[in-house]
């Protein structure tokens, strides 16, 4: 089933590090995706082992230094709010590494996980290398920062993307899905959405549903919430007066993003 995971009361690991979400694949009934969201105060340090997972460390806001035990990347992060709408820096780190994250300025960090079969080189993904694009038209417009698209060679399974949806627009619309291993027509990718709103008191709606409606959940999503999409279509509606942001993590057996539009609504793409 789809899940709405509300932002919990901050769980402190220390005076300087607080956990906002900590979701392993088993916690959210997925096979390919986990995520962790941390708030780290300036001079705070967080460490963990990647174990059997590949990880993409995203400097969501603030400034951080990131080490994999061998290499260190300093002064990562480009913004104080995601709604500055500029790309940020990330680091890809494979399995069997030790991660150390040090904040040089108050930071929010997202760690995106997927089980890995092989070790790969650590790779900096600077903001300047994020491809940026605008998708959709009419009231279905969104602005996209591609951090780890399916064309990026660093990761084995992980895809990571940021999406901005302006007030009064729909996103992931017309409804599309990617839950069948049926290439070249459709790929199987699980997905999670980490949401923020501007102003932060806002909310958006997200529906997750399958063709046979055996899964049909419509959720009111607030700032800092996570939505889990194991299968099905998953459109997002953003009300007037509030702008929406989400960071998507996708992963599956093949690192290919090939979606399938719900036929009933595909007509809106080509209307005049």
Automatic annotation (TrEMBL):
InterPro entries: Deoxy-glucuronate_isom_IolB, IolB_Bacilli, KduI/IolB_isomerase, RmlC-like_jellyroll, RmlC_Cupin_sf. Keywords: Isomerase. GO terms for molecular function: 5-deoxy-D-glucuronate isomerase activity. The keyword Isomerase applies. Pathway: Polyol metabolism; myo-inositol degradation into acetyl-CoA; acetyl-CoA from myo-inositol: step 4/7. It holds the Pfam family KduI. It catalyses: 5-deoxy-D-glucuronate = 5-dehydro-2-deoxy-D-gluconate. SUPFAM superfamilies: RmlC-like cupins (SSF51182). Its EC number is 5.3.1.30. The keyword Isomerase applies. PANTHER family: 5-DEOXY-GLUCURONATE ISOMERASE. Belongs to the isomerase IolB family. Involved in the isomerization of 5-deoxy-glucuronate (5DG) to 5-dehydro-2-deoxy-D-gluconate (DKG or 2-deoxy-5-keto-D-gluconate). This is 5-deoxy-glucuronate isomerase. The gene is iolB.
């Amino acid at each position: 089933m789809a899940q709405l995971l509300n932002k919990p009361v901050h769980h402190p690991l220390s005076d300087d590090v607080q956990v906002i979400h900590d979701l392993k694949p088993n916690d959210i009934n997925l096979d390919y995706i986990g995520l962790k969201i941390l708030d780290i105060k300036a001079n705070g340090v967080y460490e963990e082992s990647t174990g059997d997972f590949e990880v993409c460390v995203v400097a969501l806001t603030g400034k951080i230094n990131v080490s994999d035990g061998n290499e260190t990347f300093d002064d990562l992060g480009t913004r104080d709010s995601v709604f500055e709408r500029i790309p940020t820096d990330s680091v890809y780190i494979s399995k069997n590494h030790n991660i150390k994250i040090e904040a040089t300025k108050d930071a929010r960090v997202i760690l995106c996980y997927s089980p890995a079969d092989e070790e790969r080189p650590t790779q900096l993904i600077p903001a300047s290398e994020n491809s940026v694009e605008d998708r959709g038209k009419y009231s279905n417009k969104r602005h996209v920062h591609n951090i780890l698209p399916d064309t990026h060679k660093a990761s084995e399974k992980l895809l990571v993307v940021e999406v901005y949806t302006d007030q009064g627009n729909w996103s992931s619309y017309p409804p599309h899905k990617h839950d069948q291993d049926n290439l070249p027509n459709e790929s199987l990718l699980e997905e999670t959405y980490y949401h923020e709103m501007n102003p932060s008191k806002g909310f958006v709606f997200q529906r997750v549903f399958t063709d046979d409606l055996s899964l049909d959940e419509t959720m009111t999503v607030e700032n800092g919430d996570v939505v889990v999409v194991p299968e099905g279509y998953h459109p997002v509606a953003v009300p007037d007066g509030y702008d929406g942001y989400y960071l998507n993590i996708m992963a599956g057996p093949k690192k290919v993003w090939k979606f399938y539009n719900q036929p009933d609504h595909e007509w809106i793409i080509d209307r005049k």
